[in-house]
Amino acid sequence: MTVACKDHPKTTMQTPLAADATSTAGTAQAEQQQKEVCSCGSCSPFLLVLHPLLNTWGFTTGSMQLPCLLLFILPGMWAHPESSQKLHLFQSFIFYNSNFVDFSGWATLEDIVFAALQKYTWDIIYLQPWVSPALPTDEWENLQNLFKIYVHNFILSLQDEARLHQIPYPFVFQCMTGCELHPNGSYTKFYRLAYNAHNFLSFDADSSHWKRWQESELAVHVEREFNSFTDISATLQHLLNITCIDHMKRFIEYGRAALERREPPVATVFAHMRDPAQLLLVCRVTGFYPRPISVAWLRDGQEVLPGPALNTSTILPNADLTYQLRSILVVAPGDGHTYACRVRHCSLGTRSLLIPWGSSKVALGIGVAFVVLLTVAAALIGTVWYYRHRC
Questions:
Q1: Where is the signal peptide (predicted)?
Q2: Distance between CA atoms of residues 85 and 251, nearest Å
Q3: Cβ pair 299, 282 in contact under 8 A
Q4: In a domain, 387, yes or no
Q5: Which residues contact 367 (CB under 8 A, 6 or more apart)?
Q6: Of 81, 84, 53, 77, which is closest to residue 66 (Cα–Cα)?
Q7: Cβ-based neighbours of 39, under 8 Å, separated by 6 or more
Q8: Would you say 77 and 179 are in contact if contact means Cβ atoms under 8 Å apart?
Q9: What's the rounded Cα separation, in Å, for the pair 242 and 234?
Q10: Using a CB cutoff of 8 Å and minimum separation of 24, what contacts does 139-145 make?
């Protein structure tokens, strides 16, 4: 069913609540939604999205008069330091032209992607078995209806802004909001919006202030408009300060087994000769979970300090929800030292993995001896072949 407001007949939305319009209950629900949405002051696309969201969390829109651009504050609710509990919601809108937009949205608890929006239907997909039971069914239904309305009108509003500000296609908007709960009971929260992979706007939930990160005409306009809407800022404060933490605690409670699982690392050490003067010792560590890990090189039993000879990669994800990294140490062939890679991880308890690499002099000697043996073997084979075919 399409909802159109009498005061603004050009403003319409496809409402998922009308999917059951063949029944009396479905029709009544759709009609009630239309009355509520169209009573929101200017009936702008932003209010079409904001109104059901505020109702979901016990707020009312009253007589707020807001522009479509305020859709930007609703991408999601949920963040990070190490050992903190965090919930993220990400959304990405790629506007290829005025007729085609590629949308994706997903949510992470800690580092587990636990839910996503289906690309074309915008239905919520539960990616872990514990996700659906974490919230009541009617609350999931409200969230799903909210997301469908929000995404539809978010796209319409950004298309309008592209025409108004003559934004060249293609362009990308990325949204991330979040909160994090620290071990000492304190928490932080944030809102970030990016335009073409550059910081665009952020919201400080403590001071209730919007800050732009660009000097473009669009960013200046949006910052000024956002800071003039104190009611909306107060609402966003509530979502970040209260709702976000409450939802995160529920998901953590139901997903505790997945979050607390332990997968031990598997480590291998090998060498690569870069040139006659440099030997690269590589320690590859993979298959571990959770993410925090310590990898160090030992020279004659002493830890090698950070420096130009030591290069450790960032921690990268594997397809099976574990992690991997590499640590590379540059040494001089034949330097006479012994080397080992030491790995520490919570799955190992108080133990450590210690993978040795023998003396570089011995390793080099073995390599030279191997080359000599190959040369001698080739010479013998050549001699035998020569004498057999000489006759």
A1: none
A2: 11
A3: no
A4: no
A5: none
A6: 53
A7: none
A8: yes
A9: 12
A10: 142/52, 142/56, 143/56, 144/16, 145/15, 145/16, 145/17, 145/52
For the stretch 256-295, pLDDT in tens is 999 899 999 999 999 988 888 899 999 999 999 999 999 9
For the chain, what percent of residues have pLDDT higher than 90? Answer: 43
DSSP string, 237-254: HHIIIIIHHHHHHHHHHH
Buried b (16+ CB within 10 A) or exposed e, 237-275: bebbeebbbebbeebbebbeebbeeebbbebebebeeee
For residue 310, what is the domain's CATH number? 2.60.40.10
Q: Please indicate, yes or no, whether residues 86 and 114 belong to a single structural domain of this protein.
A: yes
Instruction: Answer whether 220's CB lies under 8 Å from 212's CB.
Output: yes
CB count within 10 Å of CB 378 equals: 10
- Return the higher-pLDDT residue of 201 and 158: 201
Position 385 in a domain: no
Report H helices in the chain: 24-38, 45-56, 137-164, 217-227, 230-238, 244-254, 256-259, 360-390
Number of structural domains the chain divides into: 2
